[in-house]
Amino acid sequence: MRNHSETKTDRNLSLIFLFAATLFISASLMFVLQPMFGKILLPLLGGSPAVWNTCMVFYQSILFLGYLYAHYISTRQNQQRQILIHAGLMLASFLALPLALPESTIPPTDSDPTFWLFWTLLLAIGLPFFVVSTTAPLIQKWFANVGHHTSHDPYYLYAASNTGSLIALLSYPFILEPNIGLADQKTYWSIGYLLLCILIAGCASILWKTRTQAESPQESLINTGDLNPYTQLHWLALAFVPSSLLLGLTNFISTDIASVPLLWIIPLTLYLLSFIIVFSKWNPVTHPLMVRLQPVVLLPFIAYSFINPAVLPYWMDLMLHLLAFFLAVMVCHGELAKSRPHTRHLTTFYLIMSFAGMLGGMFNTFVAPFIFNAVYEYPIMIVAALLLRPGLKSSIGDHKMAWVSQLILPAALIIIGLIVYASSDDLPQYLDTIGVGLILITGLTYAFRRQPITLALLTGILIFFTQGLHGLLSNTLYQERSFFGVLSVRESVLTDEQNRPEKYHELFHGTTKHGAQRLAAAHVQTPLTYYSRPGPMGQLFKEYDNGNQNWQVGVVGLGAGALTCYAKQQQEWTLYEIDPLVVEVASNPAYFSYLKQCSHNAIMRIGDARLSLEKEPDKKFDLLVMDAFSSDSVPTHLLTQEAIELYFKKLKPDGILAFHITNRHLALKKVLSDHAKQLHLAALIQEFKPQQEVPLVVATDWVVMANHAETLEPLRLSHLGNWQKLPLYFDVKPWTDDFTNIVSIWK
Predict the structure, then answer these.
(1) Of 189, 212, 235, which closes a domain?
(2) How many CB atoms lie within 10 A of CB 415?
(3) How far apart are CA 579 and CA 142, in angstroms?
(4) What is the tally of structural domains in the chain?
(5) Is residue 295 a part of any domain in this protein?
(6) Distance CA 170, CA 32 (A)
(7) For burial by CB atoms within 10 Å, which of 72, 283, 423, 630 has the most?
(8) Coil, strand, or helix at residue 61?
(9) What is the CATH number of the domain that holds 3?
(10) 3-state SS of 360-424?
């Protein structure tokens, strides 16, 4: 029988606030540290989106180790020993403060940097992040033992943890990053970490004074039975699929839809929001609703996002993907929350969840890029999420499984018949018929909403057939995947000056075109797209034609190698490229022959351009071309004030610095204008639009800078193009190595 003081303690709201605040602060610190340290590392790896995914896997791995630690000490040690061990761990973690990169940190240039990145993160933030990662399961387990009247079901505290994660995630790009430099961010994070340790000490002191209460006689709705292997495997699958789906969707939308800056925040926000909802009191109401809505959304999702994506504008396509993703993770996480165990299995439950999250991240980061040449892990996990709908166990062996053969076999026969009937050469004229047939088959998916296996198989056939169909229609000659993304070469046809069809090759990195080359002998050495002779680059080389015979030229960003066709026999060119796969493709004459035919005295440097340029002699270049900003995940470290100073250190006194700033989403001219003002540089801009229709000559924006206005005066006075002084902007804070803000330059 409990005494009066214990009864009073049982209903003390301050206990909930203390434990909830600890979880909230812990999750906030975790989700501030992730983007903050990712930003510190990005300059070393060219701003690649893969840096974010690799960091995510590291965080998931440390999270799993933290949960394993929490499970071990809470099941093998008494309460007092738990507190003493954890106190020692927290004290040891102070040795890693303040956060900083290890000295002489340089990534490998001749191999995949994934494991280097993992090791660097471990050395720099491993211990503090480990302490933060232990908090969620350990504090909830402690709360289950303090005798509060809600201790029998502490899972609702998980909502406080995920709310902290969500607020931190949204605050970083829109509040912290625009207002606080990296140095101050690291300082404030260290202060927050000390506050967390104080709160953990407060929770520990409550536990120290409390003896383990007897289990509440009140019957709980939570499963109190012993765990069986099926239940644990089910938890593993329910956590693995959403984790993989999160990274898969992030990669897919940046590769196949639009690589909009900070777009990765939206899927992660929805992922965290799902945890907040399913571990709250609303789950009994929301979960059945999500289960009903998922097959309803599946029909337009397959029809428009896979079968015929060109019908919708990219933002509507994106909305469909996000809606389908949210419903999938809500169903999986809802099933997970519904099957949560008694508190004696609490740490086991969270351990399996974290292990599955880590496996999902590892599959996407370490396995998928090596076995797939595109982001195929995303549709695979869409199918897997459908398999995990309620009713899977009961549907196995059900007589209705006969519907699988009755439906899948005719569908497969229709698909095979269409392929046999329409050869690849005649495929375009049958597209409408094929599209209508596929949409009709898609309409059947709703009929099988209660049969997860049939629904998943049918969806898988539809998605993978349509992906193969789109691959045939795009005339993709080559597609490969590296740490830096999906690279593809496509063959297309244009109409030449005599209205005759002519083939040409295009280089794509995700959805961004990085160059093109006409194959006709008369045009094979003609620079195209952003580098055309009528465009700003053609104008620059033409205007300085008489004086540039012996120029030393540096080019950051190789693309297809079109710029090298401005090279002269006496000139020396140095080409900088971070992705070895780009060098491999541009050097292959079967795809592009610019380098073979035009690069007379070119030297190739593989690695981050800024690190490579630091090794070059001062005052080496007459012209330095920065062409690394046309995609939408821009390497911001190449645009800081310190970077500009480095470039001019490597240029001769009368040298020219040229920036290619064509970008769908970012007004990079604002950043360069501020640098020109701060560093007292002369700067001209041309936002070029072709005056007449010339094949593969496109609109493009370029900025040229020099120490002295006289250097650029011939270009400004020439009648070759509309070069104007770079206007001043007063709404941009100077970008430095300590401070950059993408949000401030969104168009």
Answers:
(1) 212
(2) 20
(3) 48
(4) 3
(5) no
(6) 9
(7) 630
(8) helix
(9) 1.20.1250
(10) HHHHHHHHHHHHCCCCCHHHHHHHHHHHCCCCHHHHCCCHHHHHHHHHHHHHHHHHHHHHHHCCC
Whether residue 171 contacts residue 21, with contact meaning beta carbons closer than 8 Å, is answered with: no
Q: How far apart are CA 276 and CA 267, in angstroms?
A: 15
Higher pLDDT, 401 or 133: 133
pLDDT of residue 423: 46
Can you give the pTM of this predicted structure? 0.76
With bands split at pLDDT 50, 70 and 90, how would you rate the model's confidence at 175?
confident
For residue 100, tell me if it sits in a domain.
yes
Answer yes or no: do 537 and 473 share one domain: no
d(CA 65, CA 45): 27
pLDDT of residue 721: 86
pLDDT value at 41 more than 80 = no
Q: How confident is the model at residue 112 (pLDDT cuts 50, 70, 90)?
A: low
- Provide the residue count of the chain: 747
721 contact partners, CB below 8 Å, separation of at least 6: 535, 536, 539, 686, 688
pLDDT in tens, 519-563: 988 889 999 999 999 999 999 999 998 888 889 999 999 989 999
pLDDT band at 160 (very low <50, low <70, confident <90, very high): confident
For the record, the structure tokens of 237 come out as 């699958």
Backbone φ/ψ region at 510: left (φ over 0), alpha (ψ -120 to 50), beta: left
Contact assessment for residue 655 and residue 737, using Cβ atoms and an 8 Å cutoff: no
Residue 183 lies in a domain: yes
* Beta-strand pair 476-482/552-556: unpaired
Q: Which of 462, 477, 492 is the last residue of a domain?
A: 477
Same domain, yes or no: 561 and 467: no
Q: What is the CATH number of the domain that holds 624?
A: 3.40.50.150
- In eight-state DSSP terms, residue 102 is P
Answer whether residue 216 shows pLDDT above 70: no
Kindly state whether residue 306 falls inside one of the protein's structural domains: no
Domain ranges, residue 138: 1-212
Q: Please, are residues 342 and 224 in contact by the beta-carbon 8 Å criterion?
A: yes
**560 and 469 part of one domain:** no
Rg of the chain over Cα atoms, rounded to whole angstroms, equals: 29
* H/E segment holding residue 510: none
Whether 473 and 529 map to the same domain: the answer is: no
Provide the phi-psi class of 559: left if phi over 0, else alpha when psi is between -120 and 50, else beta: left
C-alpha–C-alpha distance, residues 535 and 538, integer Å: 5
Classified as helix, coil or strand, 124 is helix
Which burial class, exposed, middle or buried, applies to 332 when counting CB atoms under 10 A from its CB (0-12, 13-18, 19+)? Answer: buried
Q: Are residues 568 and 449 in the same domain?
A: no
| Residues 458 and 549 both lie in one domain | no
Co-location of 449 and 568 in the same domain: no
402-411, 470-479, 686-695: which has the minimum mean pLDDT? 402-411
Q: Please, are residues 619 and 652 in contact by the beta-carbon 8 Å criterion?
A: yes
C-alpha dihedral sign at 301, 743, 705, 722: positive
In percent, the amount of the chain with pLDDT more than 70 equals: 81
